[in-house]
Design brief:
alpha+beta; Jelly Rolls; five-stranded antiparallel sheet; 3 helices; disordered N terminus
Length: 231
């Protein structure tokens, strides 16, 4: 009986509490994730990693080839005469620490990845979460998209994954890796890279106050019932 009364009071208190903020995934936190600067601005690059214009001569993807509908003018490519090239950047998550440390903050990692015709050159996007002292907490990867997945056609396909940000994460490293498997040009392609966060809803202060008030009322009622039973 006491348990039922407690549960009812708690439910009432929670029902009266104002709803916590619960938004969807926020803005893309990757700088220049769509290559539309026409450069690698915002990225730390290795080898010949570069940007290319859609429809450029040499067999690069055309605007009508498989890829994002909002692809813009440029995309990322591995570059000339290299077996592997990379682009990386670090996103500071410290401003979201309160929400992240609830263990309920989610992330969405997505990218359009592809390559050239029947060659198996490819791209991989990785997000690595770091904690205090640079400790690696977890990671997630997208790709590679193989030539068979592309049907041996030049183009890019969407890849997406979601998960929970590990408690204690202070930043996330984003790395785009282009790998050449044939030819002289590294035809790993990528566009519209995105990393977005949905912060865990954090109850407001007055929500806690109303919950505690409801539980206090429950205590008063329980004491009254106990006195009546003793009488």
């Amino acid at each position: 009986m006491r348990f039922s009364t407690f549960a009812a009071a708690a439910a009432v208190a929670l029902a009266l509490a104002p709803a916590a903020h619960a938004n969807g995934f926020g803005a893309n936190l990757i700088a220049n994730g769509n290559a539309e600067t026409g450069s690698t601005a915002g990225w730390n690059t290795t080898s010949a990693f570069t940007t290319v214009k859609y429809g450029a001569s040499g067999g690069f993807p055309f605007p009508a080839d498989p890829g994002p509908s909002d692809r813009g003018t440029y995309f990322f490519a591995g570059g000339d005469s290299n077996a592997q090239s990379t682009a990386s950047q670090t996103i500071d998550l410290s401003a979201l620490s309160a929400a992240i440390n609830t263990g309920a903050s989610r992330y969405d990692l997505s990218a359009w990845l592809g390559g050239y015709e029947s060659q198996n050159d490819n791209a991989t996007l990785t997000a690595t979460f770091f904690g205090s002292g640079g400790a690696v907490l977890s990671s997630a990867s997208l790709g590679p998209v193989s030539n068979s997945e592309r049907g041996n056609h030049t183009g890019l396909l969407l890849r997406d994954t979601q998960g929970y940000i590990p408690v204690g994460a202070l930043n996330v490293g984003i790395t785009l890796t282009m790998t050449r498997n044939a030819g002289s040009y590294n035809d790993g392609y990528a566009d519209n890279l995105s990393f977005a966060v949905a912060a865990a809803p954090v109850p407001e202060a007055d929500a806690y106050a109303m919950l505690l008030g409801g539980l206090a009322l429950l205590g008063v009622v329980a004491k009254r019932k106990q006195r009546k039973a003793q009488a």
